[in-house]
Amino acid sequence: MMEKILLLHGALGSTLQLKPLTDLLKDRFEIFDFNFSGHGGKSFNKNGISITNLSTSLADFICEKNLNNCNVFGYSLGGYIAFNLQLNRQVNFNKIITLATKFEWNIETSNIEISKLNPEKIELKIPEFAKQLATIHYPNDWKQLVNEVALMIKDLGTNHINESQWKEIECPVRICIGDRDQMVRIEESLRVYRSIINGSFSVFPETYHPIEKINYNRLAMEIKQFML
Questions:
Q1: What is the pLDDT of residues 82-139, one digit of tens each?
Q2: Rounded to an integer, what distance in angstroms lies between the CA atom of residue 53 and that of residue 47?
Q3: Which residues pair with 202 in a beta bridge?
Q4: Which one of 38, 101, 128, 173 has the fewest CB atoms closer than 10 angstroms to its CB?
Q5: Do the beta carbons of residue 72 and residue 6 sit within 8 Å?
Q6: How far is Cα 91 from Cα 112, in angstroms, rounded to an integer?
Q7: For residues 11 and 80, what is the distance between their CA atoms, to the nearest angstrom?
């Protein structure tokens, strides 16, 4: 019987971005994926987008699909949601592996990320990205999604996983970071890895934050090496 693995995308992303990874893992895993609220055409949660709401909807999906104790890969926000679920005992994961997940949240880091999430500026200065968002999240309004993600990040500035909580995670964890990630610092990833009892750490060479720029073959190899 194949091991089960749940693949989680990042903020403003979708399961579609993880399709190349799915193709590389399907020979060794039974794969499940999940679109967060407002992402990939999924309807918006009437209570808005927040870490709590995203975690709850994912926990419901895990219960529905009988995925408790499965493995999970989380890209960026997806990794943060996985850790939040594990810490709050909403579900239990067998192993957790993340790439490009940001751990250092405070008012300053929150404001830096929010400054990048202005729909009008995106449309004016990065029109290709605006078109991409419109396509990925159709029929949803991508501008609404960007605004709701900005509110979630604002909340992360004051409500986030604190330093002492990382010590409570007992399942095996591998934290991966790209050496050229301009959003997530290697230092913050190292600090969290060192706090996790069964943690391990991996740096991907020549790797930036956007998922479109990662080496999917390299990522698939890392996941297989860690999970199997």
A1: 999 999 988 999 999 999 999 999 999 999 999 999 999 999 999 999 999 999 999 9
A2: 8
A3: 176
A4: 128
A5: yes
A6: 31
A7: 11
Assigned token pair, 136: 């990925």
Angular region, 192: left φ>0, alpha ψ -120 to 50, beta rest = alpha
The pTM for the full model equals 0.97
85-94 CB burial, b ≥16 within 10 A, e <16: bbeeebbebe
For residue 203, list its beta bridge partners: 177
Tokens linked to 3? 């091991």
∠ at Cα 156 (120, 113), nearest 5°? 35
DSSP E strands in 56-181: the ranges are 71-75, 96-99, 173-178
Beta strand 199-204 with 3-8: parallel, antiparallel or unpaired? unpaired
Which class for 66: exposed (0-12), middle (13-18), buried (19 or more C-beta within 10 A)? exposed
Please tell me the distance from the alpha carbon of residue 182 to that of residue 184, in angstroms, as a whole number: 6
Contact (Cβ atoms closer than 8 angstroms) between residue 24 and residue 214: no
pLDDT category at 10 given cuts 50, 70, 90 is very high
Q: What are the backbone dihedrals phi and psi of residue 34, each rounded to the nearest 5 degrees, phi first?
A: -155, 130
> What's at 176, amino acid-wise?
C
Token code pair at residue 72: 């999970």
Return the closest-CA partner of residue 160 out of 103, 78, 198, 212. 103
Per-residue tokens: 89: 């005992």
CA dist 145 and 140 (Å) reads 8
Integer Cα distance of 116 and 47 in angstroms: 23
Q: What number is the average pLDDT over the span 53-58?
A: 97
